[in-house]
Amino acid sequence: MSSFEKKFGKYAIRNLSVVLVICYAIGYLIEIMIPSLLNYLTLNPYAILHGQIWRLVSWVLIPPEESNIFFTLIMLYFYCSIGTTLERTWGTYRYNVYLFGGMLFTIAGSFLLMGYCYFAQPVIPFMGRILTINTPYDYFNLISMLFSTYYINMSIFLGFAATFPDHSVLLMFIIPIKVKWLGVIYGVMLFISFLQGSIYSKFVIAASLMNFIVFFFTSRNMMHLNPKQIRRRQEFKRDVRRGSSGITKHKCAICGRSEVDSPDMQFRFCSKCDGNYEYCEEHLYTHTHVKRQS
Known about the structure:
By secondary structure, the protein is mainly alpha-helical. The protein is built from twelve helices and six strands.
């Protein structure tokens, strides 16, 4: 992934969890004020193929179902908090890949489900009723309500549990419990839901959690390390690459990063500072200019 990170790392969206929570907030407002509008935002593959391409993005606005506003706010804060922690630990680029990977898998799952409905089972029981594909738009719009960000949030939590297994949270605001046990409980619940659920549920769960499955099998050799150990390992690798001389061409006067630490980072000298002060792209426009006292 490092070669891709060098190319596309600069396009990664910072604070992606905050952006996702803002999308949820917009979705809840739409649900309260204009509930009928949600029918035009869902992940309906049939509608997408017939020109409504905004649904490829707008389905992210469909918030997880929750009737209690108090628990909704707590949920949003919780996912924002653990998502931000994951971004700081994994890095912005890898966290972006993880979340957007889950979204792309979900989109792919919706199209696979549409293909299954058309070619494998044209008459399907849905919520106790027998539906036929006489009106594909309405039919798939009904099914598309199942594709929400609920399992995307679940993948964030499972990723957090795998990365910080010994971190404790307060269950019901009272009982301290390690995140790894909550992860195991949620994993078992999802597995049971997958086995007992309808074909729709199987497609939704498998597609939405595929990013965690990929993450788990590609990062399982790092699971036993805590964040400090991971950081020390990364620093050791940087020191090895740097060599014994430790000489770098560029170094930020604020954070101390060099081209060895961040190969894709851009460094520039500031023309408004008195002296040869060089800054990375993150601090070039945000630093306080150095002025010599006369």
